[in-house]
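Final report, results section. Input specification for complex C-07:
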Amino acid sequence: MLELKDVSKRFGGLAAVDSVSLVLQEGRIGALIGPNGAGKTTCFGLMSGFIRPDQGQVVFCGRDITGWPAHQVSREGLVRTFQIVQPFTGQSVLENIAVGAQRRRSRGAAIAFAAEVAARVGLGEELAKPAESLPIAGRKRLELARALAAEPRLLLLDEVLAGLNPAEIAEVVPLIESIRAGGTTVLMIEHVMQAVMSLADEVWVLAHGSLIAAGTPEAVTRDPAVIEAYLGPGAAARLAQPT
Amino acid sequence: MHTPAPIGRTPAAADAPPAVVHLLGGTRRSIRLLGLIGMALACAPLVVRSEFHLTFMTLALYSTLLGSAWNILGGFGGQYSFGHAVFFGLGAYTGAILQVHAGLPAWTGLLAGSAIGGAAGAALGAISFRYGLRGSYFALVTLAMAEVFRIIANSVPFTGAGVGMMIELRSGPADLQFESRQGYYYFALALALVALAVSSWVRHSRFGAALAAVRDNEDAARALGIDATRIKVAATALSGSLMAAGGVFYLQYFHYIDPMLVFGPAVSVEALLGPIVGGLGTVLGPLIGAFALALVSQVATQALGQAPALSMALYGVILIVMVTFLPRGLGRLRLRRGRHA
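Structure output:
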């Protein structure tokens, strides 16, 4: 479905993403994890056309989309959300979602479909409210709903669980599972490990712009390189010692 | 609520949430309201017999046209132009050149002027937005563009240079010149209603939703598949085309243009002031703003006499007051109060 081939992006002297290669199969949920500043969001930017790679290729559904403008990547079926939620301020929840829905629909049909999507993500009661009046959990749902309304083939979720309390996370996790069940492939950036462990089929770990591990969630979380990336050098050894 | 859902359309039936029904009904409500306003304004000359008052209303409707044109790009699109005179002047000069040099009837000037205004809008939009100009940078480019055209019109022979151009006095609807005040009133009304109808379409269409999305968050719009540059270029073209029609009206009404009159900053200011006073990004804002401003400047002229540049100074004060105290315009006054109550 999605393949990165040796993709790199430098900002000045900093290698934000350093020759990353990965393959995400259709119908799976992948997770991109790593400490803050590892280059995860930059990776999403490179995949979705918001950032042009300096080197390497992005292949989506067999097509080389490297360097395509963001709107064209989105029309191809690869839709991202933003870590810092980006509502259309001043517009209602319904209007926000309808923008996502109108790619292949008339305005009227888009509005009706937007209401269905809103109900699905649990925003059915908030349709008329201004987007900016929603609490953070609601805005995260709105971000998700808008992307879903565009009916993506691959959905890139950038920390949709961040800032939610455990009860809210417990509501959104099954929602993501149902999105996959509906035929959409999902790639998520996530710090909430409980969600990564329960949702992801495959995990990639980034640190300082490079992939340091890949595999099932269980394998990756036991990987000494991953533990050290999060907790510092020598941490893996200390954890392994019997106390 | 009880109107049956049109066949083949999305059912806005009783089971749809109220917010959906409300949003779907926006177009119909807007058409109905514009129809009522149009009818009332069309009947106005039956009641308003004095030439003075009819002239006042004619100029307010002409100002509504300019404001609506500007509002499509500035209000619905969030791209503030300080140089809409460039389109206005192109329309006016196109009309004048076709009549004076080619001997064509005035209505061809109206069509060609609007077309050229639209093309100029597309070109200006393409140059500015391709390179990511926004905010004050876009405003400065438009301002400079109007000045460039003013200087060109002042220099080349076929515009009559600094002397300006005068069109022949001929009256008849095909020449878009009228002996009676009513004739000009209905001409202005027709143009204003076209501009308001276009605004209403923008407000409720897919195009308008995409334009508003780009205005409110360009990155989010792009992530949802909206070609932000193309949408803004299209809005500039639409806006430029209506603004140019305003230029043709000016020509037909005053019969005389010169570079300062039609490419000068006063025109640009008149275009942006109405919507800001009346309500940015609303269909009726430019209409409310135009009539409010016409009233204020009339009262000021009567109180203070015809002082030079009085209206510009006054407009400056109004602009500051509006932006400070009523940034959403007169049209939202009722709404705001409702929310605070």
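Chain B has a mean pLDDT of 88. The radius of gyration of chain B is 20 Å. This concludes the modelling results for the funded period.
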